[in-house]
User: What shape does this take?
Amino acid sequence: MLKFISTTGGAAPVDFETAILNGFASDGGLYVPEYLPKITTAQLQSWQQLSYPELAFEILSLFMDKSVISAVDLKQLLHQSFATFGHADILPLYPLKSKQDIYIMELFHGPTLSFKDVAMGFLVNLFDYFLKRKGKHMHIILATTGDTGPAAAFASAGKATIDTWTLYPAGMITPEQERQMTTISSQNVHAVRIEDCPDGGDDIDVLIAELFADEAFKEKLNLSSVNSINWGRVMMQTVHYFYAYLHVVDAVGEPVNFAVPSGAFGNLCAGTLAREMGLPVEKFICANNKNACLHRIFTQGLMSKAPMISCTSSAIDILIPYNFWRYLYFSTGQDGTKIKQFIHDFQTTGKLQFDQETHAILTKGILSDSIADAQTLDTIKQLYAQEKYLIDPHGAVALAAVQNMKTQLSGTKLVSMATAHPAKFPDIIKRVFETENRLPEAAFHAAIEAEKLKEERVLSCNHSNMREVVREAMEQVHIKYLS
Assistant: This one.
């Protein structure tokens, strides 16, 4: 049976179920499998005609022993998780007419119109499955700067095994994203708006880390998380790289490039793991906005925390790319002691300068770019003018990076990730077209319009008192559950 271990090497190996339910390893590290399964060319060829749920079953089965979850139950969970998607292909690919051999992968056809639905729905259903079997209840807490919170809130709604707490920095997500959390009527979903966060979502990450570090509080509430730190999210996100690959190549074995809008590095981390498993990827383009937390790593070998810049691509306004530790772990020999030292150095000094050899390893097969808002908006406008295709600001960051990197790319086919529906960003689309009226039809979505009519339910607090307010609210809900 494949076991799961900590990136920092201080926790005993656990089974798949424990890794999923715990979120963090007991030593504070991130769970990773003891080894990554290898995919052969023959396997890839045999998967070419599979639907997305069928492909997900094949890949996820490599990480799960049938004693933990049966094949029948896994197939049922996958069916349940993708039944709410609004496109028959789940994640369709759009070939650009204006740019040869470039495809946009639309990851936003889930119930909250974001790529976070792809992994979140399955992960929350997995939580529910395990908790029902154990007869237990759990509190899930997460920070969101965009789409993670809505996806978790929707997936959790009505589940008796889970109370979900979505914490977000006020003013740093769109009103549309906010209402996707605050208009959910289910009593087990709790939206928490936190005012005056100088470092945005990173301030909330600190609060959540403190709650997890409080062993008594964590045990009392049976606390876990479905942020991208959870192995289930990263594991599931490997699937869409395989799916995209199999749908654009003329023959298995042909290399493909991927461009990924990146902040916390969860999606791109999954892509690098898919490549390590055997997917023929030539290059990844890591597309940052001006916060550039990953761009500094890949161009300067420097991991550092800079002041937050509020960008039009708000979901990737990230200062510390937490999933980068997983990538670092697999890239540098799976040495937990080394990763622990890296983390200690970063936390102690606020920066981490990689040596030349390590930097060369980290940048192998990866290009990066940092995109300013002006180019993001211009990319949206140009693409619509060229072929009447409207892309969201995060997808535009990826396409802009592709344009900037074109001299460093061969003629290899490229898949660029579009991670949210443009209807979630009406104010930005208005800036693109310089009008309040007559926006393209694609700038609207019925689900977004319906949420404008619903009542909101939200707990508000300030950065200065968030610790006391969040703790008290969670304990009060827990008391109600026990009664």
